[in-house]
Amino acid sequence: MARYFSRDTADKLAGFVDGKIQNIQKRYIAKPGGDSWSRACLARLRRDFDGATPSWMTVGSDLFAGWPDDVPLVDDSVREVAAVKAAMELYAWHQQSQPQGMAQESGAGKDRMTFGKACSGLARDPSRAKAIRRRLEAIEACPDFNGMVRGIRALIMMMRRPGGDVKPIELDYRALTRDLYQMQFPESRSAVFQRWSRDYWNSISPDTDKTKRQ
């Protein structure tokens, strides 16, 4: 039976992941190097990234504990699990050894740092702008989910150390979780890349824009 993208499910998964990440982050940045629980949690998630045969019993509590009751975990919940797993593991790489929180706090009224907008922050250096755009184009062209996630991780690793006078770039993992879920549905994946393109180009300065188009 065909399944279609559900905005309601995407929102519930996004809230679930954001709650987990904010809890980890709060404990990790509370003291230098984090507490033992947060360090262990992030290490487990990094170790399992993109694993062909993940150790589900090892990361199960990080992914499934507290799962939303109104998002049933059944045999065909592959997309839901993949989105949660990818978002948590991407955050684990983003936060590694960073003294400040890399997940944007979910307070109301903030200018949300979506993935497209965060990538525009990387492109402030004109010498890197074309490379950033090529990476985004490669993610959009990738035919499989794991390949897209690997491309996203490459850009997130750059957000940790943008270079020059640009500070590490935080990310809205609530929004990213929605994207990771939606991009798995062929009929709606293009909407994700449309948002990324909109947020990226809308945040690019005129000088960087000229450099990128040369």
Largest β sheet strand count, sense and barrel closure: none
User: Regions with pLDDT < 50 over 5+ consecutive residues?
Assistant: none
Number of strands: 0
**Rg (C-alpha, Å):** 17 Å
What does this 3D model show about the protein?
This is Type I-E CRISPR-associated protein Cse2/CasB. Pfam families: CRISPR_Cse2. There is one protein chain. This protein is mainly alpha-helical and 214 residues long. The protein has one domain (7-213): Peroxidase, domain 1 (Orthogonal Bundle), CATH 1.10.520. Helix content is 63%, strand content 0%. The longest helix is centred in the first third of the chain and has 22 residues, at 7-28. The radius of gyration is 17 Å and the shape is globular.
Topology:
Blueprint: H1 7-28, H2 36-47, H3 56-64, H4 78-95, H5 115-122, H6 126-141, H7 145-160, H8 173-182, H9 189-203, H10 206-213
Helix pairs in contact: 1-2, 1-4, 1-8, 2-4, 4-7, 4-8, 5-9, 6-7, 6-10
Protein name: Type I-E CRISPR-associated protein Cse2/CasB
InterPro entries: CRISPR-assoc_prot_Cse2 (IPR013382), Cse2_sf (IPR038287)
Brief write-up:
With 214 residues, the protein is mostly helical. The protein has helices at 7-28, 36-47, 56-64, 78-95, 115-122, 126-141, 145-160, 173-182, 189-203, 206-213.
Summarize this structure as a short list of keywords or feature phrases.
214 residues; mainly alpha; Peroxidase, domain 1; 10 helices; 0% strand
